[in-house]
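Human: Can I borrow your eye for a moment on a structure tokenisation matter? Separate attempts, laid side by side, tell us more than any discussion would. Could you pick a protein and write out its sequence and tokenised fold? No explanation is needed for now; the record alone will do.

Assistant:
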Amino acid sequence: MGDPENSIEPKNNIGAIIVMSDDNPVGIIAERDIIEKIIRVGKDLDETRAEEIMTSPPYLLSQ
């Protein structure tokens, strides 16, 4: 499936990913979350768990 951190790049036009657990959305990680919560504070991306930086619960919209 590929590395999520490599998917959230401007060249891929993907600015966020949905974090799933048992086929249910439990959070969202945006490009801004990675910048603010990992890069700016000097955390190691490989050592950071999704739960530490995701927005949870995600806001869901329906039509």
Notes: The chain has three helices and two strands. The chain has one domain: 4-50.
